[in-house]
Amino acid sequence: MSTQRFYSVCPHDCPDTCGVLTEVEDGRAVAFRADPGHPVTGGWLCAKVNPYLGHVYHPDRLQHPLRRAGPKGGGRWERIGWDEAVAEIARRWRSIIDEHGAAAILPYSYSGTLGLVQMAVASSRFWNRLGASRLLRSICGAAAERAVQATLGARRSPPYGHVLDSRLVIIWGHNPVSTAPHFMPLLRAAQRKGTRIVLRIEDNGPGVATDDLARIVEPFEQLGRDPANISSGGGLGLPLVKALAELQGGTLSLESAPGEGFTAILDMPAA
Ligand code: SF4
Second label for 185, Cα 20 to 30 Å away, from 86, 89, 192, 254? Predict the structure, then answer.
């Protein structure tokens, strides 16, 4: 039996853009792993994507259209055919267009796991042809994109490897362990070279009274307090973060006041 190999990229909206390799036998994928030749991927995929074969062939995966039977939230669905599903969607869209015009249809979608072709090419052509309203896209990141553009003049992202030439790295509102894991080995390498790393976390919640700032990093200080008075900082596990930072020779400092949000700044020296 011959094995076909397909090289592609992970479809997630993730800056790592990992290269993946899929092996197919008799029309069925039998292996899925990191593309060993991809420079950023480095031979490993994250925990979300590594088990993709299991997702694709899972018996509970949705594989055919379902139509809700009964009230919303009732959890009752009936299986229908593809032709019937497409005909019903087209019928409802035609009725909206006849009554209100095509602009009354708003395609609400962005990246997620769509990949570039679905996200930016195929869908745009379809919606443009239909005359539907246009979404700015980037439902979750538009504000951040504007802020970066206003601050830096452009939305440019340097190659990961440039961090090795940085003397100070500020990670602002971002957790690369979770959302850019292939950046982490480079970050650690930069730290070993002598780069200082500052992690700044902010929220715009109700804030914490100045007197409470010192107390919320004391272990177990929340015990026995009225839950209504427990500040949000304690929920971030700040006592643990502070202890770990100090073990590594770093510091955790907090800034807040009632009505002024909360900022935690973790300053770690070179490793
Ligand atoms: S780290 Fe995970 S989600 Fe990100 S590109 Fe790689 S495999 Fe995809």
Answer: 254
